[in-house]
What does this fold into?
Amino acid sequence: MVDTMLNYEEGRCNKLGFEETELRLGLPGAGEKSNANYGKRGYEETVDLKLNLSTKDVGNLDQSDLKEKTLSKEKNLLPCPNDSVKPPAKAQVVGWPPVRSFRKNVMAVQKVSDSEETEKGSGGAAAFVKVSMDGAPYLRKVDLKMYKSYQELSDALGKMFSSFTIGKCDSQGMMDFMNESKLMDLLNGSDYVPTYEDKDGDWMLVGDVPWEMFVESCKRLRIMKGTEAKGLAPRAMEKCKSRS
Amino acid sequence: MAYSFPEEVLEHVFSFLSSDRDRNAVSLVCKSWYEIERWCRRRVFIGNCYAVSPDIVIRRFPEVRALEMKGKPHFADFNLVPEGWGAYVHPWIRAMSAAYPLLEEIKLKRMVVTDESLELIARSFKNFKVLVLSSCEGFTTDGLASIAANCRNLRELDLRESEVEDLSGHWLSHFPDNCTSLVSLNMSCLGSEVSFSALERLVARCPNLRTLRLNRAVPIEKLPNLLHRAPQLVELGTGAYSAEIRSDIFSNLAEAFSVCKQLKGLSGFWDVVPAFLPAMYSVCSGITSLNLSYATIQSPDLVKLVSQCRNLQRLWVLDYIEDTGLEALAASCKDLQELRVFPSDPFGAEPNVALTEQGLVSVSEGCPKLQSVLYFCRQMSNAALVTIARNRPEMIRFRLCIIEPQAPDYLTLEPLDAGFGAIVENCKELRRLSMSGLLTDKVFEYIGNHAKKLEMLSIAFAGDSDLGLHHVLSGCESLRKLEIRDCPFGDKALLANAAKLETMRSLWMSSCSVSFGACKLLGQKMPRLNVEVIDERGPPDSRPESCPVEKLYVYRTVAGRRADMPGFVWTMDGDKSLTFS
It folds into this structure.
């Protein structure tokens, strides 16, 4: 019976075969010492949790170690053993503070009567757009206001879709569309190219306008194979030509 | 066994039972009561659409008239559930279109609804009356047009906070001229402008219209036209509440409001211009519910409005109200039961308003009926929480979000364990709790010991070890929903309390330390739970077993594993092999 098997109060948890499966806690980054302890103590320990253990006795886990590892990084990924962990940058934590995107998107369009128009734009409110990648099984949503440049967006997208590479940006953070041959290299390669649908419903190559303008006009993102994005090149070319 | 009463009498008696709990209890008395009850159950509530299947519901309850169902986990509201996860309603609509031709009501929350589903609803149910889509997505205004055009007896169409692909406002014009049955229309989430004359005519010919929530595109100058045609309105959501300041607009508005003697609820107020607020003063004394959470106006204007609403029971507002505004609220609104304060600038590094823990303390002191709180702020102290707890022991819902993760008591720099401990110790009726700030395992000990009526708990960036989770799972007797993110909880507490999970609706854990191996074990040992791993890094078995999973969603079910899982969800099945759908 499942309930007797799992009735830890009667100390019969070993029936679950905990030792058989040798299920170690294996917390990422926890030292060898801790692993060995957990392996030995196994299930009976949980019986004792209520009775006589203080938090110190439960494990030799380094508290600060744990906190660092559980604080979310940019895309809410947990490290496997040996991954290095960066402390979270502010406003990079997915889903925190827990404000609904619905609410954030609505606030974004309103003017603040006290006119706190800062460098952030409309008061730091969000701009969520859907991101799809050709061949990937799922969509994501990103908040464009979380990034300050194409490079930051490119890094974030790269992490989200790990087989994806984006063309390099120049020092001003814009894709180098001034150079026709560079553009053709990009589009002929097997790399993926980010494209976006703007407010007029046109599909454009990402990077052809200044970042702030892009954030305002981007409705959705699609990451497609370079060769498929060729159809968009003419528009980019026109812009190149009109600038030079 | 001799019957005391014939079946018809029992059925008549049962018809007075509306609560599911009562009906479920009745069903367990004996086989004949089970049979009688199941034939006369008209309303079904399904808290998790994957806990049961359409076939099972239809087989047991053949005469259902109203379905209410929820789909995605709550944390989907904060983007923690990837797109394509599931919660599709279409299989349910398909099954019900054949089995329940007399279906009247469908209420859904956090589900994916398509135009196809809406069209099927419109075609299948001749007596369809109520459609409520709360935080749903996947449909367009074309689907709405089908509903408007075909549901001859439609009473309620409520799209609250759904994500609708807004192709045009033309859908509203599909209500036929002989549609006079509308009682409630909530289109506040839509962007496009509808034909105003169509809207006007619709409102004018529906004498029972009680709730009208307009979208932003309806300008303030046109509001009086609608109010004059529906003076019986009880709940109004305005459109954009701004225009250039002209005395005729103001006086028309004031006059229109003065005619609406039954108004109890107000919402909307996008782009609000403070100068137009006094136009509403004539209705304020009757107002019990006020949603100003999109109104970006400053504290003095908010105070002027709110202090007119002496009978206010529910207030949703932005933190522009500040501590001073909340003090004024506490002084004026003695009937206040629910307060929600939303952040105007949640991602800003520095506070942009003077709203602190003090505002909430004031309200807890001044409002003796306060029982439901949602509060975003940037600083908190144990002392304040203890005060709030002592002031309001009848608190039922307490959700506090301190914007900076793991922020300590700003006065003592200690964890907020003692403060939240006081909340659960004093507020013995507490059913829902969301915590934030710096919290150790100690707070979970308090919760496990005291929060005996707690049904839903939300935890983020808290705790030190498995002991914390163990306290909650072993101590909270009434727990139904537990959602956890970014906490150092791992395998031990979860596995030791596996049986507890069958007594709950669901458990969500993301960015914690639960290993793939433990998930597999849990899935193997608990066949009546679906143990689903969500991991966008690829198959969990391509990494070591000790590697923590990104996200874990565990729920009890009688329907077995689901058949619609996307590529990033794996179910931990009993048969030891890693299964995809």
User: Anything to note?
Assistant: Residues 576-581 of chain B have pLDDT under 50 and may be disordered. Chain B touches chain A through 81 residues (CB under 8 Å). The CA atoms of residues 84 and 566 of chain B lie 6 Å apart. The longest strand of chain B covers residues 372-377.
